[in-house]
Design goal:
Elements (H helix, E strand, L loop, with lengths): L1 H9 L12 H44 L4 E6 L2 H10 L7 H4 L4 E7 L2 H14 E3 L5 E2 L14 E7 L18 E7 H15 L7 H33 L7 H17 L4 H13 L3 H8 L13 H14 L5 H13 L7 H11 L4 H14 L4 H11 L5 H23 L5 H12 L3 H14 L3 H12 L11 H16 L2 H10 L11 E6 L9 H11 L5 E5 L5 H13 L3 E10 L3 H4 L11 E8 L4 H12 L8 E5 L3 H13 L2 E5 L4 H7 L10 E4 L3 H8 L8 H22 L15 H12 L1 H7 L2 E5 L11 H21 L3 E2 L9 E2 L10 H12 L1 H6 L3 E5 L2
Helix pairs in contact: 2-3, 6-7, 8-9, 9-10, 9-11, 10-11, 11-12, 11-13, 12-13, 13-14, 14-15, 15-16, 16-17, 17-18, 18-20, 18-26, 19-20, 20-21, 20-25, 21-25, 22-23, 22-28, 26-27, 28-32, 29-30, 32-33
Length: 852
């Protein structure tokens, strides 16, 4: 028999196959195989059958923590399969019943590569591995090859490991093969690999090429799944951060109700605790998470719950207290290397910052080593390296750029907000991108649901130390964050800081306050005539303060023109830098008091966003409500773009003239900002701009206002029912009309005097011998255009947007356009409404008279 084996090993045949060529050899093989099969059938097969059952149970128990949806298959090798493999591999194994390592097999099929990795780590830590016979088939492929990818381990149970069930003694000495693969790899293996590897013939070259192309496509699919899974995991860990405050509270209410019915559901509790922590409601977070952690055995708790409870304790209790120390202990366990949780390591580092800077630095170093592109780990690691000087930034620049790109990807996916924005802002500051940094910080402030988010970022900024002096934009960001704290969260400390930064001789802001920002670039001059008309008409009825750039150029120059034309009704204030610009630029500063009543000089060098920030500092310190300030934006470059974003971050309303170009157009298409209701697209319509600026409205009694408003609505209903089958929320009687529509009619009533004043008329109490005033066609057209502008501004300020289809529920309308673009039949509604103004006034004993 041994001679036969030597003959088989030396013959030049297909690898892995043995060809029987003589009657003698066939007879020898039959006898040899019969002995092998008989021993396997009687002695080995029952034990391997039991082995497969036990191995399957162990691998399924592990599934919960590793890959909950994984498929686990086990089998003992069937007798026929044993006979076939023994014969096919006899040139390698003369005693296969004792030499084959896959007589018991298990297959674990996961969704993604990360789950494969998790299972592999489990197998390596819980089983004795026969490394000589184990195989990662992907390592056999060259970079240009695609094909069968699966990891095979030859394993034995270890007597020193607790598998969660009792392992029978008779299986400890047996080996099994465990294959771990993804679903996509399994699809290929189930077809291509089994067909070629286990087939009895070689596939034609053309078919092999087709299989290779399929393998390449499937490999790309697997990699895509892995990338998406990574992003989803990050999205899940930031659960709740991307919700608005209202959405977050609704989700908390919903989860609390569910948790009442399943109080032992750790995953549900983790979500609820995370949401509570975003609200900085540490009492609730503690109440929810504590039941799932045994203080004596914290390592037994679910890692996310342990991490978040550790953070909760350290936020709620003072440093040095028993509970603070307990929180640190929990974070130490949660940040163990096997968890790979950089957030836990950074959270632990945060707890040491005010206690032991060296320990904090060690933690951040560990976090950085675990993931160099994690923004928080990188930022804090760099802070400690920057003590050696700014040269570190140049060395670390490629790493900072890659970390910034990761932040951008997180932001695009809505992951880890607003922290990803705060991190991006700081990284861009370090990269020398000050305007981009300011934009990121502005959006972060706008999204921040809690004061601690802004204050933490402000402290982080302050730790840059002397390097900050060399970073352009550092002071912009510092002032913006301080403003955010004072405006968004009424921080008294921040307000005191702002008082120290306020202009020494602050302007006298007469309410209402409006800001006009826009382009001063010479290229704007080509359109200056149109913008001049918009602003002159827009400010015709305004009485209050207008703040702008204080120069004779571009949009700022037009503001000066308007002030000169309308006199004391408009109190203009200009903000300009105190130094740092050339002679030509300095010559453009408008020092004519008839154009700019007051000029404020900042401590900036050259025109930067510092002027806009100083404007807001002075407004806030003067007690002006930010929410009542409106900004009009026309065109503009980087500085104007920063002005728009700063105003939105702080809570002001920004109306941008449509199609005015550059930064005005850019912000309207910016995914980060365009969905805000406080960002309004104003049509290029002078009367809409005028209504947006606002004017003094007719002072009338509530009763008179209500009477006129009802009369306006009755007229609207009559027109609608006469023209077509009426539909919509507004087509109902006054007492059933929604409040927002009622208020719209009241606003229209209060605007009557503004229209009449514009055509030289006044409203007075009616006398018995008064003769009715008849408006000329030009007067009707003028007032109708004003009414349309009022309607536009009102709707836009209430969150309505333009759409081809009118939908009262979605707040869309095709009529939010300029008067010139409005269909004539719709214009006629406004014409007829203003014609009937005398009738509306007559209902409350008032009439129209022309001024002498």
């Amino acid at each position: 028999m041994q001679a036969w084996f030597r003959r088989a090993e030396t013959c030049e045949e297909t690898p892995g196959e043995t060809q029987l060529t003589t009657d003698a050899s066939r007879e020898e093989v039959r006898k040899w195989l019969a002995g092998q099969v008989d021993e396997y059938k009687k002695k080995k097969y029952p034990r391997y059958k039991r082995y497969a059952e036990v191995l399957g149970e162990v691998l399924r128990l592990a599934r919960k923590d590793l890959a909950p949806l994984a498929i686990v298959q086990t089998r003992e090798k069937a007798i026929a399969s044993f006979a076939e493999k023994a014969l096919r591999k006899m040139h390698k194994h003369s005693d296969p019943v004792h030499q084959l390592t896959d007589l018991c097999g298990a297959r674990v099929i996961t969704r993604t590569r990360s789950e494969v990795d998790a299972y592999c780590e489990y197998i390596k830590s819980h089983f004795e591995i026969d490394w000589d016979n184990s195989l990662d088939t992907s390592q056999r492929l060259t970079p240009s090859e695609f094909g069968y990818r699966s990891i095979h381990y030859i394993v034995k149970f270890r007597p020193d490991v607790d598998y969660g069930i009792k392992i029978p003694k008779e299986v400890f000495c047996l080996k099994a093969e465990i294959q771990v693969r993804t679903l996509v790899e399994h699809a290929y293996a189930d077809f291509g690999h089994d067909l070629t590897y286990k087939g009895a013939f070689a596939l034609p070259i053309a078919w092999q090429r087709e299989l290779a192309s399929v393998a390449a496509a499937l490999e790309e699919v697997d990699q895509t799944f892995s990338r998406i899974e990574d992003r989803l995991r990050e999205y899940t860990t930031s659960y709740g951060k991307y919700l608005s405050e209202e959405e977050r509270q609704r989700e908390i209410d919903r989860l609390e109700i569910i948790l009442e019915h399943v109080p032992d559901d750790a995953e549900l509790a983790a979500k609820l605790g995370k949401l509570a922590s975003f609200q900085e409601n540490w009492d609730k977070a503690e109440e929810i998470l504590e039941p799932f952690v045994n203080p004596e055995e914290p390592e037994e708790a679910p890692q996310p719950i342990l991490r978040d409870l550790g953070v909760t304790y350290c936020k709620k209790y003072p440093p040095g207290s028993r509970m603070y120390t307990q929180g640190q202990r929990y974070l130490e366990v949660a940040s163990a290397p096997e968890h790979g949780d950089v957030d836990a390591i950074c959270s632990l580092a945060e707890t040491w910052k005010e206690i032991d800077e060296e320990k904090a630095g060690d933690c951040y170093r560990r976090a950085f080593q675990a993931d160099p592109l994690d923004a928080e780990a990188l930022e804090n690691h760099l802070e400690r390296e920057l003590v050696h000087g700014p040269a570190v930034l140049e060395t670390a620049r490629p790493l900072i750029q890659r970390a910034a790109e990761r932040c951008k990807a997180h932001i695009a996916a809505g992951i880890n907000l607003p922290w990803a924005l705060y991190s991006l802002g700081k990284l861009q500051l370090l990269l020398g991108e000050p305007f981009e940094s300011l934009d990121a910080y502005a959006k972060a402030i706008q999204l921040s649901p809690a004061e601690g988010m802004i204050s933490t970022s402000l402290r982080s900024l302050s730790r840059l130390g002397e390097v900050s002096l060399e970073l352009e934009g550092f002071e912009w960001v510092r002032r913006l964050l301080t403003l955010g704290l004072a405006v968004r969260f009424d921080s008294t400390e921040a307000l005191e800081d702002l008082r120290q930064l306020a202009t020494a001789d602050r302007p006298r802001f007469r309410l209402p306050v409006r800001i006009v920002a826009g382009g001063t670039d010479p290229r704007v001059q080509a359109q200056i005539g149109e913008y001049s008309h918009l602003l002159m008409e827009g400010l015709a009825g305004f009485d209050g303060t207008i703040i702008s750039g204080g120069t004779t150029e571009g949009i700022c120059g037009l503001v000066g023109d308007a002030a000169q034309r309308y006199g004391d009704r408009i109190h203009t204030v200009g903000y300009v830098p105190g130094a740092g610009f050339g002679e030509a630029a300095a010559a453009t500063v408008d020092e004519d008091p008839e154009r700019y009543r007051e000029l404020c000089y900042t401590d900036g060098r050259g025109f930067t966003p510092l002027e806009a920030l100083q404007t807001w500092i002075d407004l806030v310190v003067s007690g002006v409500s930010v929410g009542k300030v409106r900004v009009v934006g026309i065109n503009g470059g980087r500085i104007a773009g920063a002005e728009y974003r700063i105003a939105l971050a702080l809570g002001a309303v920004v109306g941008v003239i449509s199609e005015s170009g550059r930064e005005a157009g850019r912000i309207l298409t910016d995914d980060q900002w365009s969905s805000l209701e406080r960002l309004i697209t104003l049509p290029r319509d002078a009367q809409t701009v005028r209504a947006f600026f606002g004017s003094k409205l007719f002072e009338m009694t509530e009763r008179d206002c209500e009477t006129i408003a009802q009369a306006i609505h009755e007229r609207f209903l009559a027109t609608k029912t006469a023209s077509a089958a009426p539909t919509g929320r507004a087509i109902v009687a006054w007492d059933r009309l929604d409040e927002d529509f009622q208020e719209s009619n009241r606003a229209q009533a209060r605007h009557i005097e503004e229209k009449l004043r514009d055509i030289g008329c006044v409203v007075v109490s009616a006398e018995p011998d008064d003769r009715a005033v008849t408006f000329t066609p030009d007067e009707v057209e003028r007032m109708a255009e004003m009414e349309h502008g009022r309607y536009n501004a009102e709707r836009l300020l209430e969150g309505w947007t333009w759409s081809e289809v009118k939908d009262d529920h979605r707040r869309t309308s095709p009529h939010l356009v300029s008067w010139a673009e409005l269909p004539d039949d719709v214009r006629e509604w406004d014409r007829q409404t203003v014609r009937e103004i005398p009738e509306f006034l007559a209902r409350v004993g008032l009439t129209v008279r022309r001024k002498p």
